[in-house]
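Posting here for the record, re: FE3-S4 cluster.
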Amino acid sequence: MKVVVDTDRCEGHARCQSFVPEVFRLGDDDQSHVLMTDIPDNLRTRVEEAIRLCPRQAISWVNVA
Ligand code: F3S
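Prediction output follows.
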């Protein structure tokens, strides 16, 4: 599984960065950028929380083959 941000939905609310700065970083474009694609087990719970709390529902898991 890999985490992705839908740039069409992201409006720069930055909750993701607040919850998991190791994974999400707001860019100058006011969009969240994913810093690491493979999320280690110790960060998964916080990533789940960021997914749940994003007001734009812009973050999701995707399956990678
Ligand atoms: Fe964007 Fe949601 Fe984060 S709107 S900046 S992905 S909290």
